[in-house]
Design a protein that fits this description.
mainly beta; Jelly Rolls; 6-stranded antiparallel beta sheet
Length: 211
């Protein structure tokens, strides 16, 4: 993805989630896209509600754009990020550690704002990788302030709805070597601008939970 995540460095923070056992981020399964803003990097990935799948459908054709929701989440209260996604087919194996291969059929970001010190903004991307083994962690090809973590890889489990759960606080500790209590935004993106290919993914509901 061209200049992956760099536009997110300019985030102006939005709402704050209060203390709760669950913080809803996306209600895509009911077609609710309220609170999500589009970020365009290179062409537009088409995001739309798919009534048959009851999910948000993302179609990328040599494009790179994402949807961002600005919300502050306390990871001490709700450290677990939960989501469902479905990928009909993975992208062919790409060198995702290079700029030429920085494309992902599906990804979910968590963003930690640096405030006015925008160069200190960090992001962790949970990705459906085309080539990296599940569990791999590596710096984005454009900036080390963005780290990539492979949750799924290749064509294993394609075509199926999968439920994912990650302890974001622990993953951020692993990615950046420091304890981070708050995240300030969540984003989704399906992109294929560098490879010039096409891809499709479906995103279900997204929420944080206490356990």
């Amino acid at each position: 993805m061209n200049r992956c995540g760099l536009a997110l460095l300019l985030l102006v923070l939005g709402g704050t989630a209060g203390a709760a056992d669950r913080v809803d981020i996306a209600r895509f399964e009911s077609g609710d896209l309220s609170g999500w803003e589009e970020q365009v990097f290179h062409g537009k990935t088409l995001y739309r509600y798919d009534a048959e799948q009851r999910a948000l459908r993302a179609d990328s054709h040599a494009s790179a754009s994402g949807l961002v929701k600005k919300i502050r989440v306390d990871l001490q209260q709700t450290p677990y990020l939960n989501w469902r996604w479905r990928v009909p087919a993975s992208l062919p194996p790409l060198d995702e550690r290079s700029k030429a291969g920085d494309d992902y059929v599906a990804r979910i970001y968590v963003v930690v704002s640096g405030g006015l010190l925008f160069w200190k903004t960090r992001a962790l991307n949970y990705v459906w990788s085309s080539s990296q083994p599940v569990g791999s962690l590596w710096p984005n090809a454009y900036t080390r302030q963005v780290q990539m973590l492979a949750v799924r890889s290749g064509d294993a489990h394609t075509g199926r709805w999968l439920q994912q759960k990650r302890n974001v606080r622990k993953d951020l500790q692993r990615a950046f070597g420091t304890d981070i209590r708050y995240i300030d935004a969540v984003a989704i993106m399906s992109d294929s601008d560098n490879s010039g290919l096409s891809s499709r993914a479906f995103y279900g509901d997204i929420f944080f939970s206490s356990h």
